[in-house]
Amino acid sequence: MRLAPVSPTILVQRREESRLAGTMSSDRTAKHWKRLGIVPGAPECVIKAAHLSLIEVHHPDRGGDANVAKEINAAYDELKGRGTEANMYVATNYNGEPWAVLGVSSAADPKLVNRAGKQLASELQSSHRRLAERVEWALANFASSLAAPRRERIGPMTAPPPPRPKTPTRVERPSAPVTPGLPDGLQSSIDFGKLQFGADTTRTMQLTWKHAPPYSVTIEAVGPVHAEVATSKVLPGRFFVTFTIDWDSPEFSRDASTRGYTIDAELTVRWTSKDTAIIRAKGLVLYAAHVSASPPSLDLGSARLRQPMRGSIVLVSTAAADVTIDPPAWLQRIDGSGRALTAPLKLTTNVPVRVEFGVDWAPIAERGKPSFDGGRPVHATGRIVVRWNDRELEIPAEITVAT
Fold this sequence. Notes:
By secondary structure, the protein is α+β, with helices and mostly antiparallel strands. The chain is built from 10 helices and 16 strands. The relative contact order is 0.09.
């Protein structure tokens, strides 16, 4: 069998990828780097961007393969926290090929490349402007670098020399680029405000071009924010943009101890190949309150009949909640002076509250009389039920009583 020749460009790219992988040859996670389409040791922000880019395509809810989505999530779980600091990575690979500067494979999907590059440039923009410009260069030259053969550079990559001191006039960057042909109705931000997880929340924006309207408008959304564009059938040059929250996004935590999630996403509005505007989406998502108890059960041990007995549990909620507490018949909720309490208990976010209980001996004496008359101890059991927001928590309680 005769094998097809391999172009010099592909050989150079493969040697360079092998060089980057060789710096972490002892890393047993090589398959995970490959699964995400990034080079070993890529910056932490590139790891996250690669995961989001791939899971959006392969998530089962969007028609993707569940097994592939599991592999992507497993790779992300294994690699997060292993990435290099963005400034150190770009400085080390400053003179490398565009894909090496971005930390992605030379065969990476263009959408992955675009997201990784934007995330990397954004992280470097404020503190390492020169490195951010190198990332922008790599984004602009990624596609062309794969088409033309280039000479293989010999020797290790070194960090660029420090920039010469200069005192330029600082220019504040606008939230949306000032571009000719901006439409009426364009806002610099979309504020979802404070909302409960899973709420039906929609924000809209109407864009109108009065002169030379575009044929179409696209929105490049990031993270949990989803955007759809509809064209007016009555007025040419008018478009309606609907912003919603994707509650199935992997951005959201499933950890019950987490209080909430802050939305801070960048959306790109594009109406020609060159004309774009940036919109920031912001908001605060509050997860449903989750109440936990410590200890998880109340064991009062052994006691003599009618001996004064007390016990307590500590309740903590991830969000503000009103809870009701229903103990078994032989227990009652009491205050510090021993008085019975029945009113609901107010819990604030992450503030522990101790709940005291005292033994009511009448039900135990009545039900356990045959055993007590025979000289046998009685083992009383029950459950303390804590209820809030249509949810409940059961806490086992027990005591052994002898006469």
